[in-house]
Design a protein that fits this description.
This protein is α/β, with parallel strands linked by helices. The protein has 12 helices and 60 strands. The strands form 10 sheets. The protein has a 30-stranded mixed beta sheet, with no helix packed on it. Strands 33-35-37-39-41-43-45-47-53-55 form a 10-stranded parallel beta sheet, with no helix packed on it. α4 (215-226) links the parallel β11 (205-207) and β12 (233-235). The radius of gyration is 40 Å and the shape is globular. Residues 18-25, 699-716 and 860-875 have low confidence and may be disordered.
């Protein structure tokens, strides 16, 4: 009997071990849940990375708990987590997921799912987190009532799900008492219906950014229902909030993160609103319309770690209160109107904390570059686009943690040596462009950093190619344009370009040829314009380029070889400029393979032949100054509907103007001049609506180099025949809306429909065979600055309405058969007589020829009897009286003054004494000034 307790103890221990072993053993997934997951997989139509390859019915795939993205409960086998985020899966989310009733975490974010969100998700009663955000805005949900079936939900992210029709979304949210995180950014939320239901007092994170919410729709709901909550993170950025920043924010005393950026907030930054929010560490007010100065009480309000006031209209100097922000890590004040000197030590308290400082695009000035050596943790420094001058101090090398240095577009001068950059071993982005700096770095002492991007445009690097760049083995972008280089491109540059994304050596005097490399790097952007390069253009350069500008060189040969290479870049060639070279031969006939082209410029070469095939989807197409021939392709108006600029001037095109051109609704510059076009001007030109509307388009875009995660910008430019000479327009190109059909063989009348293009700035129909009269409604073109109708066969009078064009600066109606009186108007009479010459029937100012009616009126005024002798006698008598009165006035005035001084001695004495006093004062003043000037020169 005594051994039984011991036996019981052993038996109990064995039983406990057995139970524990069973608990640790992996239990296979539930068959019903496995089938539901397989049904979900059937809705996935895109799985480029094979993420769901482990899901299936095979013998080795039966246990769904082993599938990718799955986690099961070890004891029950139920699926408790499904995470397939960031796998680029495409398809629809089926209702079968509603069968996973033990699921606690569901994450399908950052994929490309589309379709209607299944309400069966409301069956997941144990769900604690649901993340369906960032699926490219392809999913929709018209009703969020199913959220009431998720009582345990704590985290909800439906960002980029279209909730435009979910009008009661706020009520659904208010019924979730345990919700701590809510993210509904970019969901097109409808106007909030105010509800008096109690909101979730546990809500910590609220993100409603990017929904276009107005102040009147969001503020009442926000402040009434969340004023007493424990809200810590609030993001209302990219909405339509207007007016001033409301004082009600001061009731949200637990806020640590507040983002109101990119709204329409106005007024000054409130000085007292945030005094109660002592926990606020991250405050973003960028991208608004705030004005006034930065409050000088910031240090008394809170102590932020990140403060972003960029892209506003703030002015004044940097307040002294910023000196006391000792926890500051990020300070962003760019794109404002801040002024004043950057003192030697302007942020002393944050010397050991500041990591990012952006003061760019302001009006800061300084007789010397500010001393930043004390910022031991500074990683990013942006002071570009200010008015800093003098030299770059060598003390900048003490910023050992610096990774980004941008001091572009200032007035810095002097020499930059290796001593300036030697200590910056972590630097990966360097921009000193558009200063007057001279680089003097030899291979003996080169910087220790390995930069990815170097921008030194308009700095002095030449005349030899800077060989110290050879030590930079990780370069992805290099801009040394306009840097005074007169050299050939060294071979090492072409060898290292294999991993580059952007190269700009334009506006130098670089000579030589382009090598025929086996393969240029993918996503290559290259600007080598305005140099002295020659030879042929290798076909391999077209293979992977997305941006290519070789204009204004002396390249020769044909470009037909480009057809033998298919562009391998997934983005395709978007910009090709080969203008102003010596290229010859016929145009390539393979433009359809360049489907991504936005800008094509082949102007000012010796290209010939016909344009046979469709070219693509250009926004700017220029073939001017070549020898292209044939009929004007009708497909230009058929397939190039987005065309903004079309320039084919100075070629040999013939035939009539195709009616398809009238379909170019976005065209702003249409130049068909100096060809052999015949026929009439189409009346359908009134359909060129961009020339009749105030909105202006300009070809400006950013191309993204995916490999290097950077962008480069383009703003279109073109040569325009303007006021008798060819001029280049870039930034003000959006202001030019012009039609130029001059120097052709066009016949017929000027269609009155042209005057419906009321935004036209330039109209040139000269040197054709046009007949008929000038449209009487020409005065509707009130924005015209240039009007040339010369050398045609126009007849009739000049319409009176033309005098209503007040801004007309160039007018040429010469060499027609116009007749009648030139309309009266200050603008018309200010032009020279050559404007109207060659029209024998015209009369009136500024021509010397008087109109017959004017002669008759002059004759009536001067003729008052059988002869005019009486009027002549009266005129002579009037002249005698006039000149007699002048002589009499002179005698009285002169002797009235001088006679008095001669007769009165005391008056004469006082007068000359006064003159002597004035002379003495002037003499003393001049002597003192000269002595001061002399001493200043001597010192």
């Amino acid at each position: 009997m005594s051994g039984r307790p011991f036996q019981y103890l052993i038996a109990f221990s064995l039983l406990l071990i057995a139970w524990w072993s069973v608990g640790d053993a992996e239990v296979g997934c539930i068959e019903r849940e496995r089938e539901a997951l397989l049904h979900f997989k059937q809705g996935v139509v895109s799985d480029n990375y094979g993420v769901l390859s482990s899901w299936g019915n095979g013998e080795d795939k039966k246990d769904c708990c082993r599938w990718t993205g799955m986690e099961c409960d070890n004891h029950t086998g139920h699926v408790i987590m499904l995470d397939l985020s960031e796998h680029f899966l495409g398809g629809k989310i089926g209702p079968s997921l509603g069968e996973l009733q033990h699921l606690k975490h569901l994450n399908l974010s950052k994929n490309v799912f589309k379709g209607i969100l299944p309400p069966q998700l409301g069956n997941l009663s144990n769900l604690q987190s649901l993340d369906l955000g960032y699926n490219n805005g392809l999913m929709t949900c018209d009703n969020l009532d199913w959220l009431s079936g998720l009582p345990s939900l704590r985290q909800l992210d439906l960002s980029w799900v279209n909730l435009r029709k979910a009008i009661h979304w706020s009520k659904a949210i208010n019924k979730m008492p345990f919700l701590t995180g809510l993210r509904l950014s970019y969901t097109q939320l409808p106007t909030i219906s105010i509800s008096h239901d109690n909101s979730s007092k546990s809500l910590v994170v609220l993100d409603l950014s990017g929904n276009g919410l107005t102040s009147s729709s969001i503020y009442p709901w926000l402040f009434n229902l969340f004023s007493t909550s424990s809200l810590v993170h609030l993001d209302l950025s990219y909405n339509s909030l207007n007016g001033s920043i409301p004082d009600a924010f001061q009731n949200m005393t637990t806020l640590a993160y507040l983002d109101l950026s990119f709204n329409q907030l106005e007024g000054e930054i409130p000085k007292m609103t945030f005094t109660n929010i002592s926990c606020l560490v991250d405050w973003n007010l960028s991208g608004n319309q705030l004005h006034g100065s930065i409050p000088d009480t910031f240090a008394n309000m809170f102590s932020p770690e990140s403060l972003d006031l960029s892209r506003n209209q703030l002015e004044g100097e940097m307040p002294k209160s910023l000196r006391d922000l000792c926890n500051l890590r990020r300070l962003l004040l760019s794109y404002n109107n801040l002024t004043g000197l950057l003192e030697k030590d302007f942020l002393p308290c944050s010397n050991n904390t500041l990591e990012t400082l952006d003061l760019s695009h302001n009006w800061f000035r300084g007789m010397s570059f500010p001393n930043l050596s004390g910022f031991s943790r500074l990683r990013e420094l942006y002071i570009g686009f200010n008015q800093l001058n003098e030299t770059l101090p060598e003390s900048i090398r003490q910023l050992a943690e610096l990774e980004v240095l941008d001091i572009s577009s200032n007035s810095l001068q002097g020499i930059v040596s290796a001593n300036h950059l030697f200590g910056l071993s972590k630097l990966w982005y360097l921009d000193l462009s558009f200063n007057s700096l001279t680089f003097n770095i030899s291979l003996d002492q080169v910087p220790l950093f390995q930069a990815q991007f170097i921008r030194l445009a308009s700095c002095k690097l030449g005349p030899r190619f800077p060989n110290w760049l050879h030590t930079q083995k990780q370069l992805a972008g290099l801009d040394i344009s306009a840097s005074g280089i007169s050299d050939v491109i060294p071979n090492w540059l072409w060898n290292s370009i294999q991993c580059w994304g952007w190269l700009n050596v334009s506006n130098n005097h670089i000579s030589g040829t382009l090598p025929n490399l086996t393969s240029y790097p993918p996503y290559l952007g290259m600007d080598m314009s305005s140099n002295c390069l020659d030879g042929t253009i290798p076909q391999s350069i077209f293979k992977n380029a997305i941006w290519l500008d070789l204009s204004k060189n002396t390249f020769s040969g044909s470009i037909s070889l480009s057809c033998e290479t298919t562009n391998q870049s997934s983005w395709g060639l978007s910009h090709l400029d080969l203008s102003s070279n010596q290229l010859s031969g016929e145009l390539p006939q393979c433009w359809e393979q360049w489907k991504d082209l936005i800008v094509l410029n082949l102007a000012n070469n010796n290209l010939s032949g016909k344009i046979k095939t469709s070219i693509g989807l250009f926004a700017s197409c220029r073939f001017g100054k070549n020898r292209l021939s044939g009929r004007l392709p009708s497909w230009i108006g058929g397939s190039l509907l987005d065309l903004i600029v079309l320039n084919i001037r100075s070629n040999e095109f013939n035939g009539s103007i195709s009616l398809n051109l009238c379909r170019l609704r976005k065209i702003q510059m249409l130049d068909l001049s100096s060809n052999n076009l015949s026929g009439t001007i189409p009346k359908c030109l009134k359909n060129l609506v961009a020339m009749a509307q105030k909105e202006s388009s300009i070809i400006a875009y950013d191309d993204f180099i995916f490999k290097e995660s950077t962008t480069y910008s383009y703003v279109d430019n073109t040569m325009v025949q303007w006021k008798g000479k060819e001029s280049e327009f870039r930034k003000n190109l959006r202001l030019i809306k012009s039609i130029d059909f001059s120097s052709n063989k066009l016949v017929g009348e000027i269609p009155i429909e042209v005057t419906d293009l009321v935004e036209l700035v330039s109209l040139n129909l000269s040197r054709n065979n046009l007949i008929g009269s000038i449209p009487a409604t020409i005065g509707k073109l009130k924005l015209l600055d240039f009007l040339d109708l010369s050398q045609n066969q126009l007849q009739g009078g000049i319409p009176d309405s033309i005098s209503q064009i007040a801004g007309l600066s160039v007018l040429d109606l010469s060499n027609n058969t116009l007749s009648g009186k030139i309309p009266l108007g200050t603008q018309l009479q200010s032009f020279s007589a050559s404007t109207y010459e060659g029209n024998s029937g015209l009369c009136g100012p500024p021509l010397l020829k008087r109109c017959p009616k004017d002669k008759d009126e002059s004759r009536e005024v001067s003729f008052n009897g059988p002869n005019g002798k009486t009027d002549d006698i009266r005129d002579d008598a009037s002249d005698i009286w006039f000149y007699g009165n002048i002589v009499l006035g002179f005698i009285i005035g002169f002797w009235g003054v001088c006679g008095t001084l001669l007769l009165h001695n005391s008056w004469r004495y006082a007068y000359f004494k006064f003159l002597n006093k004035i002379k003495g004062c002037l003499y003393v003043t001049a002597t003192i000034s000269l002595n001061r000037l002399r001493r200043s020169f001597e010192s």
